[in-house]
């Protein structure tokens, strides 16, 4: 634990998470910036709970506020962030001009609405300036990859013959561009859940989750790594970033794993894979749950329920891989004196779960996401008072509002640019053309089409935050699946592309979560990414199950079906994990490894024939490993 305390979490976040690379303020400037951020958070509460403004006014004022704050906090270059209380004159100008472009929309809203597509030259100039400044905000806060994608789509619109006036009108003055669905969801649901996450963080719920994980799995074989898996799954319930999750829990779990004997690259990979899985963990799913509800016209409760079993399967896959690795290398659990008592810990701090319970309960009974989030925030404030070490003081209360506003900037910037992509697809019909191209390329063979869609998701998702990532996938790639395989439920197609967009965070060469984990462990980032990809192999299998067996998402299913896919999928994951690790009860020869993986993959196809073949193969391997090997006294016990 001493090594964990020496890790500079803030420095790591600034290095690997662009959203954390902010300017440093002290003294009076620090107070001014804090006031601006707190006012923004309070404005969010007012806008969502009391205002009756038109949707265009709500979204425009939200983006204008975001742009102003972004230029106050984010420098043009990383190195500039080290200078205290320094904001160059051009950033002040850009912040004011950018906010003014959106203020122009608000002031002239009625006139612009009456003109419709007949916008003036001045309107075009304001729109172009607003779009360019929004793009610069995204470059500073999120990075270049998403801008490259958006730029390619805009270039296509010009190539397709659309005029500058038409493109600017669509992207800046309608609800199909910057002010589209992504910003609409961000300004109502996502921002409140980000603020909720800030309040939960201030109650030290992250430490509680790590302690809980220790009490559950700390003493087991390979305990430290299993603790990382469990704690990252729990933190994923409120964390909206794979990198933040990796650094937050990894600063504690990775050093402990290394001390227990795990290879440094493997230790970092476990944390990166588990933390990335936090983005698919209900109820929040990196805030993508609310976007998915909007874009699929499905209730939030349905989305959250659909995500439960796949998330369990994902983390079970990593858990099994860790278990077999520990058995193979002879790693033990933590000493008993380092393990907290589960029941004592739960009764002492279990109340910290209450905000999440309130959130799920209120949304399940019909409350809007905004009101449910506000009630959860209120609950977090109340329950924090139960103990001194979790109590929110006036200072931490203000810090929670401040951090919530700051954390919103990156998500909002990404959602703005994602809205541009959605707008161009809507304007040009590009999505259908891509589907036609993929249909031709795949030769009409469904599994090839799904594989090509997976590759597209992995490429488009590199370096893009979860929320914007999902918007891009839902706009470009989900319609491809629905056109190629019309019988596929909409929810299954969206979950398919969402999963592959998320795992881009651990897939080399970008692999931001793997880079962050390797920085803590001192390992090789590329090797860490490769190992993390192997550990998260379930994330490359589960999405195919969504499409081939939608019952897994609780879509038009029955109890017998739930029992069937629960047994077969868990059995398949057990076999695949053992086959990839090359170990179960003892070392698996190459032919057993191949059979184990093949048997597990057989269970992806939901037909009775493939299930029976897969089960026979897996039972055969288990019989050899656990019955014959167990009777063979010559086999060394591990």
TrEMBL record:
Domain TRAP C4-dicarboxylate transport system permease DctM subunit: 130-556
Keywords recorded for this protein, A-Z: Membrane, Transmembrane, Transmembrane helix
Domain of life per record: Bacteria
Pfam families xrefs: DctM
Membrane-crossing segments per the record: 32-53, 59-76, 88-107, 119-135, 142-159, 179-200, 299-322, 369-387, 408-432, 438-460, 467-485, 491-516, 528-547, 562-583, 595-628
Protein name, per record: TRAP transporter fused permease subunit
Species of provenance: Defluviitalea raffinosedens
Taxonomic lineage of the native organism: Bacteria, Bacillati, Bacillota, Clostridia, Lachnospirales
